[in-house]
Amino acid sequence: MSSPSRLWIPAAIADLLLIVLFAAIGRDAHARGDVIAGALATAWPFLAGASFAWLLTRAWRAPLAAWPSGVGIWIGAVTVGMLLRAVTGQTVVLPFVLVALVTLGVFLLGYRLIAALLLRASRKRQRGA
Questions:
Q1: CA–CA separation, 65 vs 31, rounded Å?
Q2: How far from 45 is each of 52, 81, 112, 124, 127, CA to CA, in Å?
Q3: Angle subtended by helix axes 35-57 and 71-87, to nearest 10
């Protein structure tokens, strides 16, 4: 099993990619052109929020933990992301906030919960072998 110190890099990359995927899906759903640059323009406030939450929760200590790391990163990404969108004149309306909350929750917590199940199964197999 990898130590948390080795897992923080892939976890941070997964968070980054999932946030960019969220932005790209949203832009594609609304038929907004320039998918790559547009997705990054949409994603940056959420990436900033997730980065802030990584520092605040010290997520590198337990990067795959749903609590507090995953929940903190999820809520930080949405809260700071929406605040940054508001102060930069980007759209912040209730339906978008709810979609971001649900989608980023599924993305950022989902892979952590799946990883926890896989790690638990791996430990059981190692003990049983």
A1: 35
A2: 11, 4, 22, 40, 44
A3: 130
45-63 pLDDT, tens digit each:
999 999 999 999 999 999 9
Structure tokens at 111: 């892979």
Residue entry with tokens 């790209």: 24
Burial class of residue 51 in the structure, from the number of CB atoms within 10 Å of its CB (0-12 exposed, 13-18 middle, 19+ buried): middle
- Between 6 and 117, the higher pLDDT residue: 117
Task: Write the CA distances from 84 to 67, 78, 125, integer angstroms.
Answer: 25, 10, 46
Domain boundaries, the chain: 4-128
Decide if 14 contacts 111 (C-beta within 8 A): yes
